[in-house]
């Protein structure tokens, strides 16, 4: 029984090390994209490819933004995955900004957003064509 717990402990360390390696490297590599802004928060996530059970894998996060503050939203992909990250900002009324224009198929590295109303906002992250991917989204505000 003791061996089982020891084995499970080491397996969990190895698994968390695999996840942390991708995410920690991405956070460190993504910092230069917020140059000139003050770091607020990051969102680390890994998504599986689309399947019948989950046709549109999406990572969703909430954050509170303040009125009359300029924010910078950005995200960085893990190079070892095919997925190109797409992120969108929502409030209760709907979509406010997106890093991807489906008509032109253009990706934007970052989005500047001036908050008009303090409150709860939502960030949704997917990968183009719902491929497998690992990324970190970062939120910063103007100094």
Describe this structure in words.
Residues 4-21 have low confidence and may be disordered. This protein has 1 helix and 10 strands, in the order αββββββββββ. The longest helix has 29 residues, at 2-30. The chain has a single domain, classed as Jelly Rolls. The chain has one helix at residues 2-30; strands at 37-47, 59-65, 70-77, 85-91, 94-98, 100-101, 106-107, 110-114, 119-127, 133-142. 20% of the residues lie in helices and 46% in strands. The protein starts with a helix and ends with a strand. The protein is α+β, with helices and mostly antiparallel strands. The strands form 3 sheets. It has a 4-stranded antiparallel sheet, with helices on one face.
Gross morphology: globular
Q: Within the CATH hierarchy, at the fold level, what is the topology?
A: Jelly Rolls
Could you give a short account of the major beta sheet? Answer: 4 strands, antiparallel
Quickly count the helices.
Answer: 1
Question: How many domains, in number, for the residues?
Answer: 1
The multimeric state of the shown protein is: single chain
The CATH C-level class name: Mainly Beta
Radius of gyration: 17 Å
What is the β-strand count? 10
Structural class: alpha+beta
Strand composition percent: over 45%
* Strand neighbour order, sheet with most strands: 1-10-3-8
- What is the CATH-assigned architecture? Sandwich
Low-confidence spans: 4-21
Average pLDDT level: 87
Report how far apart the termini are: 55 Å
| Percent range of helical residues | 10-25%
Order of helices and strands: HEEEEEEEEEE
